[in-house]
Amino acid sequence: MYDVIVVGAGHAGVEAALASARIGMNTLLLTLDKNMIASMPCNPSIGGPAKGIVVREIDALGGQMGRVADLTALQYKMLNMTKGPGVQSLRIQSDKIAYSNMMQDLIEQQELLECREGMVQKLLIHQGEISAVQLENEEEISGKTVIITTGTYLDSKVMVSSDVKEEGPDGQRTTTALTNSLHLAGIETFRLKTGTPARVLNTSIDFSQTEEQKGSDNFYAFSYQTKQEEMIQDQVSCHLTYTNQETHEIIQDNIHLSSMYSGVVKGRGPRYCPSIEDKIIRFADKDRHQIFLEPESQQLDTIYIQGFSTSLPYDVQEKMIHSLKGLEQAKILKYAYAIEYDAINPLQLKPSLESKKISNLFFAGQINGTSGYEEAAAQGLIAGINACQKIKGEAPLILRRDEAYIGVMIDDLVTKGTEEPYRLLTSRAEYRLLLRHDNADTRLTQHGRDVNLVSDQQYDYYQSVQREMERIEVLSRETIIKNSADFSEFLAEKGYGKLIESMTVYQLLKRPNIHIEDLQAFVKWEIDKEIGRRVEIGIKYAGYIEKAKKDALKLQSMEKLILAESLNYDDIVHLSLEGRQKLKEIRPNTIGQASRISGVNPADIAVLAVYLEQQHRKH
Fold this sequence. Notes:
- It is a single chain.
- By secondary structure, the protein is of the alpha+beta class.
- The protein has four domains: 2-193 and 340-450, 3-Layer(bba) Sandwich (FAD/NAD(P)-binding domain); 199-338, Beta Barrel (Elongation Factor Tu (Ef-tu), domain 3), CATH 2.40.30.260; 472-546, Arc Repressor Mutant, subunit A, CATH 1.10.10.1800; 560-618, GidA associated domain, C-terminal subdomain (DNA polymerase, domain 1, Orthogonal Bundle), CATH 1.10.150.
- The chain is 37% helix and 18% strand.
- It has 20 helices and 22 strands.
- The strands form five sheets. Strands 1, 2, 6, 7, 8, 9 and 20 form a seven-stranded mixed β-sheet that branches. Strands 14-15-16-17-13-18 form a six-stranded antiparallel β-sheet, with no helix packed on it. A four-stranded antiparallel β-sheet has the order 11-10-19-12.
- The longest helix is centred in the last third of the chain and has 23 residues, at 456-478.
- The chain is globular.
- The two termini are 42 Å apart.
């Protein structure tokens, strides 16, 4: 018997399997095709707004995605650098072949982890508890816990216009048997839709007609342990082009042939990553839309047309692509398609990602209604950790909303649910100034250590960085810069008047436009550039950060008010009808979670608080 069985080896599956094996559990990873481990069937990139911070959080907890993304990058770019640190986020253009190969190697080399090919068709459940999985050859494999990470492969259908094929991404097999097994177990599913754009031959594009998009000049990485010399030295450029009036006319003239607009598609598509025909219809006032041309791998001569997913027929796709500036002679190597698949209603999950109905059964990734590699990997990591915690009889790792974007995402899913592919956005986080790219280790590494996932090497490095940050802050308070001709000239360049009296580095860093690297010429410090920047953020935004922490403390106090799983809401008088219904359906863990349920109003929360206080007095 295995301790943990992970079904599916996409981005969620590999994180779940690696985490459980590294924690010390005997783990089995089941996949349809070992060559497709951690594949990127859609965009060849990792990170972006909010998502990049999630990858940083995965690394801080002891996960793998960030490190592999660093080592297989074609380009790295820090986004939103002209904005505040709360929305700055790293995006890496990945080599999709190298990324998948490196993950495959890590899976093969990991102790206590076995990877096998096989399709799971049935869950074996006894008295409300998962006991085993059954493969299509009827082999039964026992496990103490099971994590389902099947992505977009459940009853999936690939659609181009009216042509519908029962298959998964990249022509892989699909299954309806597992969906049927979930239904028999009382697990509710619904249909979702996503899509992918065409790929074209790199050498058939006239890049001189497009705008070059280079990577960042400064060094950035997802993993705290990645060194600059380990990453790509000669970054590969992406390019930008735009749709135009001709493109829009082609789409409008053929919109009735789209799978989505002809009624073929039944599932809800992603609001924040719509198909190009959806963009043209929804944003009819826009004269053009950005289209990014992204390389997929150094081993492939292919370009991914970001922002141009469609389910229109092949001949229409040809016309659309050839209407784009620079792509007039482009040779299409792989056409775009839409894909529809089964997902489970995430309201059926506990915050640990364990099923409420079936004990020891966990779900992670796109099957929970999310979109994106990063969201999937984060869920896989948490599910892997919590499956191990369940086996050990220890409390699950549940990250708060003020603690991690991962916490925001999971709380959104299990509290609010979703009717469309869920995507993380910075706007979803109430405390995004606390959830920054730079401080993920401070927020989360101790959690990873506590569950035995963060290695000694990672933990020692984390502690050394924390000590160095403390040292630099103390140094900034103690180091005084006196007025001089050179310093007066520097202040004038920054838009400030002459320094009337001496000031500490700490006081100067409070000012906008003055950065710690600027001041090093005057104080002759030798400090790590990234660590210095982290200290500067803490100093410059100290007031805002402190306010956010105080606001978060109010949330934490509500999270400490536990609602028993067995609580009978029918016994609580004065709850609103809708509030009672939603509380019974979702069964929140805490008053804090209850307050975020749509349909539960402030009066309901007050009633619950009074009820808990009364129960406390009785006992």
